[in-house]
Design brief:
The chain is of the alpha+beta class. The termini are far apart. It is 30% helix and 28% strand. Strands 4, 5, 6, 7, 8, 9, 16, 20 and 21 form a 9-stranded antiparallel β-sheet that branches. Strands 12-13-14-15-22-19-18-17 form an 8-stranded antiparallel β-sheet, with no helix packed on it. Strands 1-2-3 form a 3-stranded antiparallel β-sheet.
Protein backbone atom coordinates (compact mmCIF):
# COMPACT_ATOMS: atom_id res chain seq x y z
CA UNK A 1 0.00 0.00 0.00
CA UNK A 2 1.30 3.45 -0.93
CA UNK A 3 1.47 5.78 2.07
CA UNK A 4 0.10 9.30 1.49
CA UNK A 5 0.55 12.64 3.25
CA UNK A 6 -3.19 13.22 3.51
CA UNK A 7 -4.32 14.78 6.82
CA UNK A 8 -7.92 13.83 7.62
CA UNK A 9 -10.23 16.35 9.25
CA UNK A 10 -11.45 15.64 12.76
CA UNK A 11 -15.21 15.45 13.15
CA UNK A 12 -17.29 17.16 15.80
CA UNK A 13 -17.85 13.85 17.55
CA UNK A 14 -18.55 13.87 21.26
CA UNK A 15 -16.20 11.67 23.28
CA UNK A 16 -16.95 13.41 26.57
CA UNK A 17 -18.78 10.33 27.86
CA UNK A 18 -16.03 8.01 26.79
CA UNK A 19 -13.76 6.31 29.30
CA UNK A 20 -11.30 3.46 28.98
CA UNK A 21 -11.44 0.14 30.75
CA UNK A 22 -8.45 -0.76 32.87
CA UNK A 23 -5.43 -1.94 30.93
CA UNK A 24 -2.67 -4.19 32.18
CA UNK A 25 0.06 -2.80 29.91
CA UNK A 26 1.99 0.32 30.78
CA UNK A 27 4.94 2.40 29.59
CA UNK A 28 7.45 3.87 32.05
CA UNK A 29 10.90 5.30 31.27
CA UNK A 30 10.40 4.01 27.71
CA UNK A 31 10.08 0.43 28.93
CA UNK A 32 6.90 -1.39 27.94
CA UNK A 33 5.34 -3.94 30.28
CA UNK A 34 2.76 -6.23 28.71
CA UNK A 35 1.93 -9.88 29.27
CA UNK A 36 3.89 -9.52 32.53
CA UNK A 37 7.17 -8.92 30.70
CA UNK A 38 9.13 -5.65 30.51
CA UNK A 39 11.23 -4.65 27.52
CA UNK A 40 12.85 -1.51 26.20
CA UNK A 41 10.60 0.25 23.67
CA UNK A 42 13.48 0.86 21.25
CA UNK A 43 14.63 -2.76 21.41
CA UNK A 44 11.20 -4.02 20.35
CA UNK A 45 10.85 -1.43 17.59
CA UNK A 46 14.27 -2.25 16.15
CA UNK A 47 14.45 -6.02 16.79
CA UNK A 48 10.91 -7.30 16.98
CA UNK A 49 11.90 -10.60 15.37
CA UNK A 50 13.84 -11.38 18.58
CA UNK A 51 10.67 -11.35 20.70
CA UNK A 52 7.73 -13.79 20.87
CA UNK A 53 5.01 -12.96 18.39
CA UNK A 54 2.36 -12.61 21.09
CA UNK A 55 4.45 -10.05 22.95
CA UNK A 56 5.12 -8.10 19.74
CA UNK A 57 1.40 -8.08 18.94
CA UNK A 58 0.53 -6.79 22.41
CA UNK A 59 3.29 -4.19 22.20
CA UNK A 60 1.79 -2.82 18.98
CA UNK A 61 -1.72 -2.61 20.47
CA UNK A 62 -0.55 0.46 22.41
CA UNK A 63 -2.81 -0.52 25.32
CA UNK A 64 -0.38 1.30 27.58
CA UNK A 65 -1.55 4.70 26.27
CA UNK A 66 -4.74 4.57 28.32
CA UNK A 67 -3.16 3.34 31.53
CA UNK A 68 -2.73 6.16 34.10
CA UNK A 69 0.65 4.65 35.02
CA UNK A 70 2.04 5.70 31.63
CA UNK A 71 3.41 9.29 31.66
CA UNK A 72 2.18 11.46 28.79
CA UNK A 73 5.76 12.41 27.92
CA UNK A 74 6.57 8.74 27.30
CA UNK A 75 3.32 8.18 25.41
CA UNK A 76 4.03 11.03 23.02
CA UNK A 77 7.60 9.92 22.45
CA UNK A 78 6.48 6.34 21.78
CA UNK A 79 3.84 7.40 19.25
CA UNK A 80 6.11 9.68 17.24
CA UNK A 81 8.99 7.18 17.26
CA UNK A 82 6.58 4.52 16.03
CA UNK A 83 5.32 6.81 13.26
CA UNK A 84 8.73 8.02 12.13
CA UNK A 85 10.95 4.97 12.61
CA UNK A 86 8.78 1.85 12.32
CA UNK A 87 7.95 0.56 8.83
CA UNK A 88 4.81 -1.22 9.92
CA UNK A 89 3.58 -2.23 6.47
CA UNK A 90 6.02 -5.13 6.27
CA UNK A 91 6.14 -6.07 9.96
CA UNK A 92 3.92 -7.62 12.61
CA UNK A 93 2.69 -4.22 13.74
CA UNK A 94 1.01 -3.82 10.36
CA UNK A 95 -1.07 -7.00 10.70
CA UNK A 96 -4.77 -6.25 10.73
CA UNK A 97 -5.44 -7.31 14.33
CA UNK A 98 -2.81 -5.16 16.10
CA UNK A 99 -3.65 -2.35 13.68
CA UNK A 100 -7.31 -2.56 14.75
CA UNK A 101 -6.53 -2.38 18.45
CA UNK A 102 -3.96 0.36 17.93
CA UNK A 103 -6.40 2.57 15.96
CA UNK A 104 -8.92 2.30 18.79
CA UNK A 105 -6.34 2.97 21.51
CA UNK A 106 -4.83 5.94 19.66
CA UNK A 107 -8.26 7.51 19.15
CA UNK A 108 -9.29 6.94 22.77
CA UNK A 109 -6.07 8.58 23.91
CA UNK A 110 -6.23 11.41 21.35
CA UNK A 111 -9.65 12.56 22.57
CA UNK A 112 -7.96 13.74 25.78
CA UNK A 113 -5.01 15.48 24.06
CA UNK A 114 -4.42 18.89 22.50
CA UNK A 115 -1.99 20.07 19.82
CA UNK A 116 -1.13 16.68 18.36
CA UNK A 117 1.08 16.89 15.29
CA UNK A 118 -0.49 16.43 11.83
CA UNK A 119 1.58 13.28 11.28
CA UNK A 120 -0.44 11.61 14.05
CA UNK A 121 -3.66 12.05 12.08
CA UNK A 122 -1.92 11.17 8.83
CA UNK A 123 -0.70 7.92 10.38
CA UNK A 124 -4.20 7.02 11.53
CA UNK A 125 -5.45 7.63 7.98
CA UNK A 126 -2.78 5.36 6.47
CA UNK A 127 -3.40 2.68 9.09
CA UNK A 128 -7.12 2.74 8.34
CA UNK A 129 -6.34 2.28 4.64
CA UNK A 130 -4.16 -0.72 5.43
CA UNK A 131 -6.81 -2.24 7.67
CA UNK A 132 -9.63 -1.69 5.21
CA UNK A 133 -7.66 -3.56 2.53
CA UNK A 134 -6.88 -6.49 4.86
CA UNK A 135 -10.07 -7.34 6.76
CA UNK A 136 -9.53 -10.72 8.47
CA UNK A 137 -12.47 -12.65 7.05
CA UNK A 138 -10.33 -15.78 6.84
CA UNK A 139 -9.27 -15.63 10.52
CA UNK A 140 -12.76 -14.62 11.65
CA UNK A 141 -13.76 -14.55 15.32
CA UNK A 142 -12.46 -11.83 17.61
CA UNK A 143 -10.08 -10.61 14.87
CA UNK A 144 -12.91 -9.80 12.46
CA UNK A 145 -14.95 -8.15 15.20
CA UNK A 146 -11.97 -5.99 16.20
CA UNK A 147 -11.51 -4.95 12.54
CA UNK A 148 -15.09 -3.73 12.37
CA UNK A 149 -14.85 -1.89 15.69
CA UNK A 150 -11.68 -0.04 14.60
CA UNK A 151 -13.27 1.11 11.35
CA UNK A 152 -16.25 2.48 13.31
CA UNK A 153 -13.95 4.39 15.67
CA UNK A 154 -12.09 5.87 12.70
CA UNK A 155 -15.33 6.72 10.92
CA UNK A 156 -16.71 8.58 13.93
CA UNK A 157 -13.50 10.41 14.86
CA UNK A 158 -12.93 11.86 11.38
CA UNK A 159 -15.03 13.61 8.73
CA UNK A 160 -15.10 13.03 4.99
CA UNK A 161 -15.94 10.39 2.41
CA UNK A 162 -13.23 7.97 3.56
CA UNK A 163 -14.36 8.18 7.19
CA UNK A 164 -17.95 7.52 6.14
CA UNK A 165 -16.83 4.54 4.06
CA UNK A 166 -14.95 3.14 7.08
CA UNK A 167 -17.95 3.71 9.34
CA UNK A 168 -20.34 1.90 7.03
CA UNK A 169 -17.92 -1.00 6.50
CA UNK A 170 -17.34 -1.36 10.23
CA UNK A 171 -21.04 -1.24 11.05
CA UNK A 172 -21.78 -3.86 8.41
CA UNK A 173 -19.18 -6.21 9.93
CA UNK A 174 -20.44 -5.73 13.49
CA UNK A 175 -24.10 -6.12 12.60
CA UNK A 176 -23.42 -9.25 10.55
CA UNK A 177 -21.35 -10.81 13.34
CA UNK A 178 -23.56 -10.22 16.38
CA UNK A 179 -25.97 -13.12 15.86
CA UNK A 180 -23.15 -15.47 14.90
CA UNK A 181 -20.67 -14.61 17.64
CA UNK A 182 -23.12 -14.22 20.54
CA UNK A 183 -24.97 -17.48 21.17
CA UNK A 184 -28.53 -17.70 22.46
CA UNK A 185 -27.43 -18.25 26.06
CA UNK A 186 -25.31 -15.09 25.87
CA UNK A 187 -21.89 -16.72 25.54
CA UNK A 188 -19.27 -15.94 22.92
CA UNK A 189 -19.13 -18.61 20.22
CA UNK A 190 -15.43 -19.38 20.83
CA UNK A 191 -16.45 -20.79 24.26
CA UNK A 192 -13.63 -19.01 26.07
CA UNK A 193 -14.51 -16.91 29.14
CA UNK A 194 -11.55 -14.60 28.41
CA UNK A 195 -12.54 -13.97 24.79
CA UNK A 196 -16.10 -13.47 25.98
CA UNK A 197 -14.75 -10.65 28.16
CA UNK A 198 -12.86 -9.17 25.21
CA UNK A 199 -15.98 -9.13 23.03
CA UNK A 200 -18.08 -7.65 25.83
CA UNK A 201 -15.51 -4.86 26.15
CA UNK A 202 -15.84 -4.24 22.39
CA UNK A 203 -19.63 -3.99 22.64
CA UNK A 204 -19.47 -1.67 25.65
CA UNK A 205 -16.96 0.52 23.79
CA UNK A 206 -19.29 0.77 20.79
CA UNK A 207 -22.33 1.39 22.98
CA UNK A 208 -20.54 4.22 24.82
CA UNK A 209 -19.37 5.67 21.51
CA UNK A 210 -22.87 5.53 20.03
CA UNK A 211 -24.68 7.24 22.92
CA UNK A 212 -23.65 10.87 22.28
CA UNK A 213 -22.85 10.65 18.56
CA UNK A 214 -25.12 10.68 15.56
CA UNK A 215 -24.50 7.35 13.89
CA UNK A 216 -27.74 5.63 14.74
CA UNK A 217 -27.27 3.33 11.77
CA UNK A 218 -30.17 0.88 11.84
CA UNK A 219 -30.75 2.02 15.43
CA UNK A 220 -27.36 0.72 16.54
CA UNK A 221 -27.86 1.48 20.25
CA UNK A 222 -31.03 -0.58 20.43
CA UNK A 223 -29.36 -3.29 18.37
CA UNK A 224 -26.36 -3.59 20.72
CA UNK A 225 -28.28 -3.42 24.00
CA UNK A 226 -29.82 -6.94 24.12
CA UNK A 227 -26.52 -8.55 23.16
CA UNK A 228 -24.70 -6.67 25.92
CA UNK A 229 -27.39 -7.69 28.42
CA UNK A 230 -27.09 -11.36 27.47
CA UNK A 231 -23.30 -11.31 27.62
CA UNK A 232 -23.31 -9.65 31.05
CA UNK A 233 -25.76 -12.24 32.39
CA UNK A 234 -23.68 -15.13 31.00
CA UNK A 235 -20.52 -13.73 32.58
CA UNK A 236 -22.20 -13.25 35.96
CA UNK A 237 -23.30 -16.88 35.96
CA UNK A 238 -19.87 -18.39 35.25
CA UNK A 239 -17.70 -15.99 37.27
CA UNK A 240 -18.11 -17.88 40.51
CA UNK A 241 -15.76 -15.75 42.62
CA UNK A 242 -16.88 -12.50 40.90
CA UNK A 243 -13.21 -11.77 40.16
CA UNK A 244 -11.40 -14.19 37.83
CA UNK A 245 -12.04 -15.88 34.50
CA UNK A 246 -12.42 -19.69 34.73
CA UNK A 247 -9.79 -21.76 32.92
CA UNK A 248 -11.69 -23.33 30.04
CA UNK A 249 -10.21 -23.22 26.54
CA UNK A 250 -7.83 -20.27 26.03
CA UNK A 251 -8.61 -18.24 29.13
CA UNK A 252 -6.46 -16.49 31.71
CA UNK A 253 -6.23 -13.22 33.65
CA UNK A 254 -4.91 -9.75 32.70
CA UNK A 255 -5.78 -9.91 29.00
CA UNK A 256 -9.47 -9.03 28.92
CA UNK A 257 -10.69 -6.38 31.37
CA UNK A 258 -11.41 -7.93 34.74
CA UNK A 259 -14.98 -9.20 35.21
CA UNK A 260 -15.48 -6.70 38.04
CA UNK A 261 -14.43 -3.87 35.76
CA UNK A 262 -16.89 -4.99 33.07
CA UNK A 263 -19.68 -5.30 35.64
CA UNK A 264 -18.96 -1.84 37.08
CA UNK A 265 -18.96 -0.22 33.62
CA UNK A 266 -22.21 -1.94 32.65
CA UNK A 267 -23.91 -0.82 35.87
CA UNK A 268 -22.81 2.77 35.26
CA UNK A 269 -24.46 2.56 31.84
CA UNK A 270 -27.75 1.43 33.35
CA UNK A 271 -27.57 -2.28 32.55
CA UNK A 272 -29.13 -4.89 34.82
CA UNK A 273 -27.32 -5.38 38.14
CA UNK A 274 -28.98 -8.72 38.90
CA UNK A 275 -27.05 -11.47 40.67
CA UNK A 276 -27.36 -15.13 39.81
CA UNK A 277 -27.33 -17.71 42.60
CA UNK A 278 -28.14 -21.37 42.27
CA UNK A 279 -27.48 -23.85 39.48
CA UNK A 280 -27.67 -23.14 35.73
CA UNK A 281 -27.18 -24.93 32.43
CA UNK A 282 -25.90 -22.69 29.63
CA UNK A 283 -27.04 -24.96 26.85
CA UNK A 284 -25.49 -23.36 23.77
CA UNK A 285 -22.01 -22.80 25.23
CA UNK A 286 -22.08 -26.07 27.14
CA UNK A 287 -21.20 -24.85 30.63
CA UNK A 288 -23.08 -25.96 33.72
CA UNK A 289 -22.99 -24.35 37.18
CA UNK A 290 -23.90 -26.41 40.24
CA UNK A 291 -24.00 -24.83 43.71
CA UNK A 292 -24.46 -26.22 47.21
CA UNK A 293 -23.84 -25.08 50.77
CA UNK A 294 -20.09 -25.78 50.63
CA UNK A 295 -19.18 -25.86 46.93
CA UNK A 296 -19.67 -24.13 43.61
CA UNK A 297 -18.88 -26.16 40.53
CA UNK A 298 -18.41 -25.21 36.85
CA UNK A 299 -18.42 -28.10 34.35
CA UNK A 300 -17.58 -28.25 30.65
CA UNK A 301 -20.06 -30.39 28.73
CA UNK A 302 -19.56 -28.61 25.41
CA UNK A 303 -18.51 -29.68 21.96
CA UNK A 304 -15.40 -28.06 20.57
CA UNK A 305 -16.53 -24.90 18.92
CA UNK A 306 -17.01 -23.28 16.64
CA UNK A 307 -16.19 -26.10 14.23
CA UNK A 308 -14.71 -23.84 11.56
CA UNK A 309 -12.40 -21.78 13.83
CA UNK A 310 -11.51 -23.91 16.87
CA UNK A 311 -8.08 -22.31 17.35
CA UNK A 312 -8.72 -21.38 21.00
CA UNK A 313 -10.14 -24.80 21.90
CA UNK A 314 -8.59 -27.20 24.42
CA UNK A 315 -8.99 -30.94 24.89
CA UNK A 316 -10.91 -30.21 28.09
CA UNK A 317 -14.19 -32.07 27.57
CA UNK A 318 -15.87 -33.08 30.86
CA UNK A 319 -13.38 -31.08 32.91
CA UNK A 320 -14.45 -28.98 35.87
CA UNK A 321 -13.38 -26.29 38.32
CA UNK A 322 -14.56 -26.07 41.93
CA UNK A 323 -14.74 -23.23 44.46
CA UNK A 324 -15.02 -23.40 48.25
CA UNK A 325 -14.89 -20.59 50.81
CA UNK A 326 -15.00 -18.09 47.96
CA UNK A 327 -11.75 -19.39 46.41
CA UNK A 328 -10.96 -21.84 43.64
CA UNK A 329 -9.89 -25.21 45.04
CA UNK A 330 -9.76 -27.51 41.98
CA UNK A 331 -8.89 -26.18 38.55
CA UNK A 332 -7.73 -26.54 35.01
CA UNK A 333 -4.13 -25.36 34.81
CA UNK A 334 -4.77 -22.48 32.40
CA UNK A 335 -2.54 -20.88 29.77
CA UNK A 336 0.80 -19.12 30.18
CA UNK A 337 1.82 -18.77 26.52
CA UNK A 338 0.77 -19.10 22.89
CA UNK A 339 3.09 -20.31 20.13
CA UNK A 340 3.94 -23.92 19.25
CA UNK A 341 6.23 -24.96 22.09
CA UNK A 342 5.81 -27.95 24.44
CA UNK A 343 4.22 -25.86 27.21
CA UNK A 344 1.54 -24.60 24.82
CA UNK A 345 0.77 -28.15 23.68
CA UNK A 346 0.60 -29.35 27.29
CA UNK A 347 -1.70 -26.53 28.37
CA UNK A 348 -4.13 -27.31 25.54
CA UNK A 349 -3.99 -31.04 26.24
CA UNK A 350 -6.30 -33.22 28.32
CA UNK A 351 -3.79 -33.91 31.11
CA UNK A 352 -3.65 -30.22 32.11
CA UNK A 353 -7.38 -30.32 32.86
CA UNK A 354 -9.36 -31.91 35.70
CA UNK A 355 -10.77 -34.78 33.69
CA UNK A 356 -9.79 -38.24 32.33
CA UNK A 357 -7.11 -39.07 29.77
CA UNK A 358 -7.30 -42.44 27.98
CA UNK A 359 -4.37 -44.31 26.40
CA UNK A 360 -2.14 -41.26 26.83
CA UNK A 361 -4.09 -39.35 24.18
CA UNK A 362 -5.97 -36.06 24.13
CA UNK A 363 -9.76 -36.24 24.00
CA UNK A 364 -9.58 -33.75 21.12
CA UNK A 365 -6.62 -33.76 18.75
CA UNK A 366 -5.16 -30.32 19.45
CA UNK A 367 -1.90 -29.68 17.64
CA UNK A 368 0.45 -26.83 16.85
CA UNK A 369 -0.52 -23.56 18.53
CA UNK A 370 -4.09 -23.14 17.30
CA UNK A 371 -4.95 -26.27 15.34
CA UNK A 372 -7.56 -28.97 15.94
CA UNK A 373 -8.11 -32.23 14.06
CA UNK A 374 -10.41 -35.02 15.34
CA UNK A 375 -12.51 -33.73 18.19
CA UNK A 376 -14.69 -34.95 21.05
CA UNK A 377 -18.45 -34.79 20.61
CA UNK A 378 -20.99 -34.78 23.42
CA UNK A 379 -23.33 -37.70 22.73
CA UNK A 380 -25.76 -37.11 25.56
CA UNK A 381 -26.22 -34.70 28.40
CA UNK A 382 -28.70 -34.55 31.24
CA UNK A 383 -28.99 -32.00 34.05
CA UNK A 384 -31.23 -32.64 37.04
CA UNK A 385 -31.26 -29.14 38.48
CA UNK A 386 -33.41 -30.04 41.50
CA UNK A 387 -30.94 -32.66 42.71
CA UNK A 388 -27.74 -31.04 41.36
CA UNK A 389 -26.84 -34.03 39.17
CA UNK A 390 -25.16 -33.59 35.79
CA UNK A 391 -24.41 -36.42 33.33
CA UNK A 392 -22.60 -36.32 30.00
CA UNK A 393 -20.81 -38.69 27.60
CA UNK A 394 -18.27 -37.94 24.87
CA UNK A 395 -16.65 -39.97 22.09
CA UNK A 396 -13.28 -38.25 21.84
CA UNK A 397 -11.35 -41.52 22.14
CA UNK A 398 -11.66 -43.84 19.19
CA UNK A 399 -13.98 -46.78 19.98
CA UNK A 400 -14.09 -45.68 23.64
CA UNK A 401 -16.79 -43.72 25.44
CA UNK A 402 -16.14 -41.63 28.53
CA UNK A 403 -19.11 -40.74 30.72
CA UNK A 404 -19.01 -38.54 33.79
CA UNK A 405 -21.60 -37.81 36.45
CA UNK A 406 -21.30 -35.01 38.99
CA UNK A 407 -23.49 -35.29 42.11
CA UNK A 408 -23.31 -32.23 44.35
CA UNK A 409 -24.67 -32.27 47.89
CA UNK A 410 -24.35 -29.77 50.75
CA UNK A 411 -20.83 -30.75 51.85
CA UNK A 412 -19.91 -33.41 49.30
CA UNK A 413 -19.13 -33.78 45.61
CA UNK A 414 -19.17 -37.24 44.05
CA UNK A 415 -17.79 -37.69 40.52
CA UNK A 416 -18.49 -41.00 38.82
CA UNK A 417 -16.47 -41.81 35.69
CA UNK A 418 -17.38 -44.67 33.36
CA UNK A 419 -15.19 -45.96 30.53
CA UNK A 420 -16.82 -48.20 27.93
CA UNK A 421 -14.58 -50.09 25.50
CA UNK A 422 -14.41 -53.51 23.89
CA UNK A 423 -10.61 -53.41 24.11
CA UNK A 424 -8.31 -52.99 27.06
CA UNK A 425 -7.45 -49.36 27.74
CA UNK A 426 -5.32 -47.50 30.24
CA UNK A 427 -6.44 -44.25 31.79
CA UNK A 428 -5.40 -41.41 34.08
CA UNK A 429 -7.60 -39.22 36.23
CA UNK A 430 -6.46 -35.67 37.06
CA UNK A 431 -7.67 -33.36 39.81
CA UNK A 432 -5.52 -30.22 39.72
CA UNK A 433 -5.37 -28.22 42.94
CA UNK A 434 -4.81 -24.48 42.98
CA UNK A 435 -1.59 -23.07 44.45
CA UNK A 436 -1.30 -22.89 48.24
CA UNK A 437 -3.70 -25.79 48.75
CA UNK A 438 -2.05 -28.33 51.06
CA UNK A 439 -2.28 -31.99 50.03
CA UNK A 440 -1.39 -35.10 52.06
CA UNK A 441 -1.82 -38.75 51.12
CA UNK A 442 -3.44 -40.66 53.99
CA UNK A 443 -3.55 -44.13 52.40
CA UNK A 444 -3.72 -45.75 48.98
CA UNK A 445 -7.03 -44.14 48.10
CA UNK A 446 -7.51 -41.22 50.48
CA UNK A 447 -6.07 -37.71 50.43
CA UNK A 448 -6.47 -34.85 52.86
CA UNK A 449 -6.42 -31.29 51.51
CA UNK A 450 -6.66 -27.89 53.18
CA UNK A 451 -7.31 -24.50 51.56
CA UNK A 452 -6.20 -22.46 54.57
CA UNK A 453 -9.74 -22.31 55.93
CA UNK A 454 -11.28 -25.77 55.77
CA UNK A 455 -10.18 -29.41 55.71
CA UNK A 456 -11.39 -31.84 53.06
CA UNK A 457 -10.95 -35.49 52.24
CA UNK A 458 -10.64 -36.69 48.66
CA UNK A 459 -11.37 -40.40 48.23
CA UNK A 460 -10.55 -42.15 44.95
CA UNK A 461 -12.30 -45.50 44.41
CA UNK A 462 -11.80 -48.08 41.64
CA UNK A 463 -8.26 -47.06 40.68
CA UNK A 464 -5.12 -49.19 40.71
CA UNK A 465 -2.74 -46.42 41.77
CA UNK A 466 -3.04 -42.93 43.22
CA UNK A 467 -0.45 -40.25 43.95
CA UNK A 468 0.04 -36.53 44.03
CA UNK A 469 2.68 -34.78 41.96
CA UNK A 470 4.10 -31.31 41.52
CA UNK A 471 2.75 -29.18 38.70
CA UNK A 472 2.47 -25.56 37.60
CA UNK A 473 -0.60 -23.36 37.49
CA UNK A 474 -0.82 -20.46 35.01
CA UNK A 475 -1.70 -17.27 36.89
CA UNK A 476 -1.45 -15.25 33.67
CA UNK A 477 0.70 -15.13 30.54
CA UNK A 478 4.33 -15.77 31.49
CA UNK A 479 3.43 -16.30 35.17
CA UNK A 480 3.49 -19.85 36.55
CA UNK A 481 3.10 -20.87 40.16
CA UNK A 482 3.85 -24.25 41.72
CA UNK A 483 0.87 -26.39 42.61
CA UNK A 484 -0.17 -30.01 43.19
CA UNK A 485 -2.11 -32.52 41.08
CA UNK A 486 -3.88 -35.60 42.42
CA UNK A 487 -3.51 -38.40 39.86
CA UNK A 488 -5.25 -41.75 39.69
CA UNK A 489 -4.53 -44.44 37.10
CA UNK A 490 -5.67 -47.87 36.06
CA UNK A 491 -6.61 -50.21 33.23
CA UNK A 492 -10.03 -51.16 31.98
CA UNK A 493 -10.13 -54.89 31.23
CA UNK A 494 -13.89 -55.12 30.90
CA UNK A 495 -16.44 -53.52 28.62
CA UNK A 496 -17.30 -51.08 31.39
CA UNK A 497 -15.08 -49.73 34.12
CA UNK A 498 -16.37 -47.42 36.87
CA UNK A 499 -14.29 -45.30 39.25
CA UNK A 500 -15.22 -42.53 41.65
CA UNK A 501 -13.82 -39.36 43.21
CA UNK A 502 -15.52 -38.17 46.41
CA UNK A 503 -14.66 -34.78 47.91
CA UNK A 504 -15.98 -34.10 51.42
CA UNK A 505 -15.74 -31.00 53.54
CA UNK A 506 -14.95 -32.10 57.09
CA UNK A 507 -14.33 -28.81 58.95
Amino acid sequence: MLLTNYIPTKSNCNFSFYFSLNKHSYLLDMKVTCLNQMNNFFDVINREESFPKLYVYNFHYFDFLNNPRSPQKDNLEAIYIWINDYEYQNKLGGDAYPTSLRIVNWIKWATKQTNLQPIFYNSLYNQSKLLYANIEYEIDGNHLFANGKALIFYGIYFDGDWAEKCLNKGLKIIINELDRQVLKDGGNFELSPMYHGIMLEDLLDLYILALPNNFNYENIIHLLKPYIEKMIDWLKIIIIDKVTYPHFNDSTQNVAPSPKNLFDISISLGFNNASYDGSFLLAQTGYCVLKSKAFSLLCDVANVGPDYIPGHAHADTLSYELWANGKKLICNLGISEYGTGPRRLYERGTSSHSTVEINGKNSTNVWSGFRVAERARILNQNFNIENNILNATHNGYKNVLHSRQWILCDDELEIIDIIKSKKNVSFKLFHHLTPNVYCEKINDHLFKINDGISDYTFELVGLEQTRFEKNQYAIAFNVLEDTTTIVGSGCSLNEEHVFKSILRKIT
